[in-house]
Amino acid sequence: MKAKTNNHSLLFALMLSAFSALGPFTVDMYLSSLPQLMSYFGTNTSMIQASLTASLLGLGLGQLVTGPLSDVHGRRKPLLISMILYLLTSLACAFSPNIGLFIALRFIQGFVASAGLVISRAIVRDRYNGIEMTKFMSLLTMISNIAPLISPTAGSTVTTFTSWIGVFIFLGLLGLFLTGVTVWGIKESLPAERRISSNFREVLRNYGSLLRDRSFMGYALVNGILFSGVFAYVAGTPFIYQNMYGISPQLFSILFALNGLGIILGSQFVKRLAGRMDERRIFRIGLQLAFITTAAILMIVLAHGPFFALFISVFLFAASIGIIGPVSFTLAMESQGHIAGSAAAILGTLQFALGAVTSPLVGLGGDNSAIPFGITIFMTSILAVIAFVFLVKKPTLASL
Questions:
Q1: Could you tell me which of 326, 263, 355 has the C-alpha nearest to residue 121?
Q2: Closest listed residue to residue 100, CA positions, set 24, 42, 31
Q3: Is residue 223 within 8 Å of 329, Cβ to Cβ?
Q4: Where are the transmembrane segments (predicted)?
C-alpha cells in the first residue's frame, strides 16, 4: 500500500513539476539563439535583451494575477486557459514579424507561464498539510530543479537542427502537452465552497492581510532574499569562473549542473528529516548553512582564494537553498489554505523581483572582479537573517 502511495506521489510530483518547468524553459531555452535573433530582426543587443527582461517581468507580475484568479475560479480553469494561451503565444513568437511585437509576445508568454508556477504550488497546499506538505515539496523541488539544468542544453540541441524558430515551436508543443495534462491529469483541488469572492476589493484585502502577517512575510522574505542569491550566482559565475579562473565553457556547464545537484541534495535532506525533526529546526539549519557559506564566498573572493574553495562554498550555498525552499514554503503556507493562490503568488513574485535587483549588482566591478558578487551574495544571507529574527522570531539575535 505504501509503495502505491509513493508511486502516486511521484507521478503527481512529475505532473506538477512539468508546470513549474515552464518558467526556466521560457527564460533559458532560447538563450543560445540570441545572436540569431539579433541578426534575424536586424536589431541591437539591448533590444534582444529586452525580450529576456520582458519574459521575466511577465513571470513575476503574472503570478500576482493568476494566483488570486485560482482562489476565485478554482485551480483547473485558470491553468487550462493559461496553457492554451501559452501554446498560442509561443507559436506567435516563432512567426513574429518584428522585434517590437516579439518583445510584447515574450511578456505575454511569461505572464501565462506564471500560472504553471503559482497554481502548481497552490494545488500542493490544497492537498497536503504539515509534514506531508514538507515531504511533497522537497520531492517537487528535487524534480523541478532539473529543468534549469537541461533547458539551455535543450535549446542548443534544437538549434543544431533548426533555427531559433524551432525553439518556440518546441515551447508551443510543450504548451500543447501541458494543456493535455491539465485536461486529463489534473483534478480540481479547490471545491467551490472554499473559493473566495471575485470582488476585486477582497482580492486586495487578501494581499493586504498577507503583507501584514509577520510570520508569513518572514518566511516569504527569507525564501525570496536567499533565492535572489541564486540569481546573483547565475549572473556572476559565468564571468568569474571563466575570466578569472580560466574555466572552459564546457567545464563551466558541468559545474553549473553540479550546483543544481546541490539544490537536489538539500531537498533530499529535508525529505529524510521531515517527521523526525521539527520543520522550524530544519529551516534554521538551512539558514545557518546559507550564512556560513556566503561568508566563506566573500572571504575567498576578497583573498583571491583557490577555485576549489569557491566552488565548494557555492555548492553548499546551493544545498542550503534546497533545504530552505520546501521548508519555508510549508511554514509560510500553513495558515493560508483559503487564499493559497495569492500566498503562492507573493512567494514566487518575491523571488523574481529580488532576483532582478541582485543580478545587475554582481557586474558593478566589471568582468574581472568577483568582489561585487561576494558582497551581494553575503548580503542576501544577512538580510535573510534579519527578516527571520525580526518577523518570524522575537527581535533578539539569540533567536537564531
A1: 326
A2: 42
A3: yes
A4: 48-67, 79-97, 103-124, 136-155, 161-186, 216-241, 247-270, 282-302, 308-332, 344-364, 370-392
Domains of the chain: 1-195 (1.20.1250.20), 197-400 (1.20.1250.20)
> Would you state the cell numbers that stand for residue 76, as one nine-digit string?
483547473
- Identify the CA nearest to 118 among candidates 70, 83, 86: 70
Contact 47, 102 (CB under 8 A): no
HEC string for 89-142: HHHHHHCCCCHHHHHHHHHHHHHHHHHHHHHHHHHHHHHCCHHHHHHHHHHHHH
Tens digits of residue pLDDT in 185-211: 999 998 888 888 777 788 888 889 899
Cα separation, 184 vs 182, in Å, equals: 6
Residues paired with residue 277 on neighbouring β-strands, in sequence order? 274
C-beta of residue 99 within 8 angstroms of C-beta of residue 43: yes
In contact, 312 and 172? CB cutoff 8 Å: no
110-122: pLDDT as tens digits: 999 999 989 998 8
